[in-house]
Structures are given as structure tokens and as C-alpha cells.
Design brief:
This protein is mainly alpha-helical and 278 residues long. It has two domains: 55 residues; 210 residues, Orthogonal Bundle (MetI-like fold). Helices cover 76% and strands 0% of the residues. It is built from twelve helices and no strands. Helix 3 runs antiparallel to helix 9. The N and C termini lie far apart (58 Å).
Length: 278
């Protein structure tokens, strides 16, 4: 009898869990479902409803429109450029912090990390003046600014990966005549690749989602990324085109998701801090 009561309690608990998870899933999926339904509705409105007819006109409009297509390319340029620039800097900058001893090493490293904790809005004025001074009120200026802001995190992560690699690996390379550059590319970087992938992905997605910096630094609509373009598309020409905005939002979300699935294997090992410990 007690055995049956235990089974009934387990069944009730399982049902409750499924119900709660279903409610959470509905709330989580509802906004995305509305986006999809509205993007294929030729007369999309703010109402949550099934479309009577379907069309891909709004998606064609995203890529066919001169402004929106340019914003897509600008987002790719800014995001990939920032991620690549950060990675190019930190794979070299992390080496002395990991392998060399010099005065103030920890102060410099943790000082950079602590500075990055400060909200971005606190850096807007100096960054804007810097870009004005050097003529960087363009996508390159945004790339440089985003790279500067993301270097501390990447530097710390890659430095920790370098720390897990035994020094004997480098000594073996030095015996074979390898210099520092060859040692970094042939010995350290292959082992620290998961960490490098994490840094690239985090910088890419952060730059892809960034709104404030491009909004402040880019005054020319031709230079806008999708985040700023989407914001400025609300109420364009005196009305809100819900179908176009929904399609634009879905296109805006897709690249980050695709990049995640392409890099997910290295992201798992990179985020877990995988490496060879000496």
C-alpha cells in the first residue's frame, strides 16, 4: 500500500513539473512565436493571431532595401572585426602576463579587469572625444572602441589557459629552435584554442547586440548596424510596419544563434576552463 502511495506521489510530482515547465515554455516562446507569425503576415499588426495568408515579402524587403541590407553588412563588419581584433591582441598580450615576471604585473592585469566593470556609459564621453580627435566616427571607430572594452576579459581568460600549459612544452620547442612567435602559434595557441573561441564568440555577440556605442558614435545612417537601424525603423514614415520590423528582428537574431551552434563544441570546453595542467 505504501509502495503505491509512493508511486502516486512521484506521478503527481512529475505532472506538476511538466505543467510548470510547459507554462514557462509558453511564456518564453510566445514573443518569438508572435515575431514569426507577424513576419509572414502580409497585414501584420500588434495582435497575436494566426495570419489568414502568408508571405515572405517582409524578409525580401529586409535584404532588398538599400538601408536595411547595408545595416546587416555593417553589423557583420563591426562584430567580426571587433572579435578578430581582440583575439589578435590578446594571444600575444597574454604571454608576458603568463610566462614573465615583471613589476606591477598583477596590478596591471586586475586593474584592466576592474576598469571594465565600470558601466559603459561612464566611458562614452572620452570614447566620443577620442573618436572625434582621430576621425573615427565611423564603423572602424566602433570596432576600436569595442575592442578596447573587451580586451581585459579576453586577456584574463587566455592568460589562465596559458597558465595551465606546462613550461616543458615550450622548452622542447626552444630546443628545436623555435622563437616566441612560433612557440605561441605552434604550442600555446592550439591548446588554448577553446579559450580563444570563447573570447571570439563573446566579443562577437557583445558587439552584435551593442546599441549604445554605435548610436553615439555613428551619426551617418549609412554606417549604422542592425541594432541602431532597427531602433530607427520604428515609426519610419509616420507608421509602424510590424511585418517588416518582425522580419528584421528575426534576421537580427539569426547570426548569433548560428555562430553559437557552429562553435558550441569549443565553447563548452572553453567555458569549463579545459586545459592541460602542469
Amino acid at each position: 500500500m505504501w509502495f503505491n502511495r509512493g508511486l502516486n506521489r512521484e506521478k503527481i510530482s512529475l505532472v506538476i513539473n511538466y505543467v510548470l515547465l510547459s507554462i514557462i515554455a509558453i511564456f518564453w516562446l510566445s514573443p518569438f512565436t508572435w515575431l514569426i507569425l507577424t513576419s509572414i503576415d502580409p497585414h501584420g499588426t500588434s495582435a497575436f493571431k494566426l495570419p489568414e495568408n502568408t508571405t515572405l515579402e517582409h524578409y525580401f524587403l529586409v535584404f532588398a532595401g538599400s538601408s536595411s541590407a547595408r545595416w546587416v553588412l555593417n553589423s557583420v563588419l563591426i562584430s567580426a572585426g571587433s572579435a578578430t581584433m581582440v583575439l589578435a591582441v590578446i594571444i600575444f598580450a597574454a604571454y608576458p602576463f603568463s610566462r614573465m615576471q615583471f613589476r606591477g604585473k598583477n596590478v596591471i592585469l586586475w586593474g584592466l579587469v576592474l576598469i571594465r566593470i565600470i558601466p559603459l556609459s561612464a566611458f562614452l564621453l572620452p570614447l566620443f572625444l577620442f573618436c572625434v580627435r582621430f576621425g573615427l566616427l565611423n564603423p572602424m571607430g566602433v570596432i576600436v572602441a569595442l575592442s578596447m572594452l573587451n580586451i581585459p576579459f579576453g586577456l584574463l581568460l587566455i592568460k589562465n589557459f596559458y597558465d595551465t600549459i606546462p613550461l616543458t612544452y615550450e622548452e622542447a620547442a626552444w630546443v628545436d629552435g623555435a622563437g616566441i612567435m612560433k612557440t605561441i602559434f605552434k604550442v600555446l595557441l592550439p591548446i588554448a584554442a577553446p579559450g580563444a573561441v570563447v573570447v571570439w564568440f563573446m566579443t562577437f555577440t557583445g558587439a552584435w547586440n551593442e546599441f549604445m556605442l554605435p548610436f553615439v558614435l555613428l551619426r551617418n545612417p549609412d554606417f549604422w548596424p542592425m541594432s541602431v537601424g532597427l531602433y530607427n525603423s520604428f515609426g519610419l514614415h509616420g507608421s509602424v510596419n510590424f511585418g517588416f520590423l518582425s522580419a528584421f528582428s528575426i534576421v537580427y537574431a539569426v547570426p548569433s544563434v548560428l555562430v553559437f551552434f557552429l562553435l558550441r563544441k569549443n565553447l563548452v570546453s572553453g567555458l569549463s576552463g579545459a586545459g592541460i595542467k602542469g
